[in-house]
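lol ok so funny story. i was supposed to be doing the assay writeup but got distracted and ended up predicting the structure for this chain instead. priorities right. anyway since i did it might as well share w the group, maybe its usefull for someone
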Amino acid sequence: MAIQVNLDRVLLDRKMSLTELADRVGITLANLSILKTGKARAVRFSTLDALCRELDCQPADILEYVDEDS
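and the output, tada:
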């Protein structure tokens, strides 16, 4: 997939654990882990909004398009 998830990097920059973020956002640790590992097939805008709010970042900080042909 050409979309890369950089959630682990943003969490590291914010010195926040995945468990703490899950509690703050109100989604399960399992679902957040699926997103973090890049295995999610979709992300709701409400989830992305909550992640950006709690991490004080932009969607582009979390999601990145990577051309697979290069």
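The beta strands are 3-5, 63-65. Helices lie at 7-14, 18-25, 29-36, 45-55, 59-62.
back to the writeup now i swear
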